[in-house]
Amino acid sequence: MTIYGVALLAFCFLVGKITGTLLGAAIGIDGDVGGVGFAMILLVAGNTWLKHRGGLPPATAGGILFWSAMYIPIIVAMAAVQNVKAALSGGWLALLAGTAATVAGLLLVPVLSRIGRPDLPQPRADD
């Protein structure tokens, strides 16, 4: 059943790559634009959809978890290297946009870390 996890991952990668390439062609760029992001969104959506429909046996879920744990860091690191090379050759606007997105992400970490965390107990008035 682990092979089904690999099949879902491969499907998401191919659809993401095709979508990114078509998006790049639509805006006049010779390359993949956001294919990795599309693939990760499809992987999360496909995994969630299968869980809700009951079509995800534990062995398949294990395969998806294993390969997604391997896939995401490697692909994101590869994409990050390509983005840095493109930004350095793209000029100041690309560097400014990348820096702004990074700073915004860092500033949102505390906000996002509070989501889903239970509220801390409030002290009583008589204490």
Automatic annotation (TrEMBL):
Pfam families: MadL. GO terms for cellular component: membrane. This is Malonate transporter MadL subunit. InterPro entries: Maln_transptMadL. NCBIfam families: malonate_madL. It comes from the Bacteria. The lineage of its organism: Bacteria, Pseudomonadati, Bacteroidota, Saprospiria, Saprospirales. The chain crosses the membrane at residues 34-50, 62-80, 92-112. Keywords: Membrane, Transmembrane, Transmembrane helix.
